[in-house]
Amino acid sequence: MCKKLLFAKPISEAVMREETTERLVWRDYLWNSGQVIRVWFEDPSAIDDTMISVHLLGDNDISPGQ
Questions:
Q1: HSE on the CB side for 62, CA within 13 Å?
Q2: Other beta carbons less than 10 A from residue 11's beta carbon
Q3: SS3 14
Q4: How many CB atoms lie within 10 A of CB 40?
Q5: φ, ψ for residue 37 (rounded to 5)?
Q6: Tell me, what's the pLDDT at 2?
Q7: d(CA 62, CA 66)
Q8: What is the distance between the alpha carbons of residues 7 and 23, in angstroms, rounded to a whole number?
């Protein structure tokens, strides 16, 4: 039987910095099942790894709706 994914919390994210802007590349979520799921906001094949920085998120780093 498959355990339902009922809730998740963001645990890390990658941000791509360009000259004057920042774009969210992906965010990892830890589900109550223990599974980590990555949600991509940019095309992974178009990302230059040297331009991103990965941030670990704490409980207060993400407000609801972001």
A1: 17
A2: 15
A3: strand
A4: 12
A5: -120, 130
A6: 65
A7: 7
A8: 25
Comparing CA positions, the residue from 32, 37, 35, 31 lying closest to residue 13 is: 37
- Widest distance between CA atoms in the chain: 49
Sheet strands (E) in the chain: 8-17, 22-31, 36-40, 52-56
- The reported pTM is 0.75
Could you tell me the two tokens for 12?
């890390």
Reported as a single tens digit per residue, the pLDDT across 34-53 is: 899 999 999 999 888 888 99
CA–CA separation, 14 and 31 (whole Å): 19
β-sheet bridge partners, residue 10? 29
Which amino acid is residue 43, in one-letter code? D
